[in-house]
Amino acid sequence: MTVLAENTIVEHIATIMAEKFEIPVADVDVTAEFETMKLDSLDLVELAVILTRTYGIELDDFDITDAGSIEKTVAMMREKGLRTA
User: Fold this and answer.
1) Residues whose CB is less than 8 angstroms from the CB of residue 29 and which lie 6 or more positions away in sequence, other chains included
2) What is residue 30's three-state secondary structure?
3) What is the C-alpha separation between 45 and 10, in angstroms, rounded?
4) Are the C-beta atoms of residues 63 and 81 closer than 8 Å to each other?
């Protein structure tokens, strides 16, 4: 399994937020709660699917909801076995 820098994963998720969910880049804050970025439950399901496919870590929308932010999502992914540098 490839070891990725944690900041690379954070940046990738921020890019997804900007491109997929059309959140202005200036409004993507890695520490902000997903609710403040106006992501609904369907958005979180889609984010979980994208991250599962990309990183091979089994995630569901409850995991993403419980994490609540990009920063905490990366930490949760690490706890589920994603190797980060």
Assistant:
1) 36, 37, 70
2) coil
3) 18
4) no
pLDDT tens digits, residue range 26-66?
A: 888 999 999 998 899 999 999 999 999 999 999 988 999 99
Question: Are residues 3 and 83 in contact, defined by beta-carbon separation less than 8 angstroms?
Answer: yes
Q: Give me the percent of the chain exceeding a pLDDT of 90.
A: 65
Of 22, 10, 3, 26, the residue nearest 85 (C-alpha) = 3
C-beta separation of 55 from 49 below 8 A: no
Tokens (6 digits) for 82: 């994603």
The per-residue pLDDT for 2 is 60
Q: Please give the helix or strand (H or E) that residue 7 lies within, else none.
A: helix 6-20
3-state secondary structure 39-73: CCHHHHHHHHHHHHHHHCCCCCHHHHHHHCEHHHH
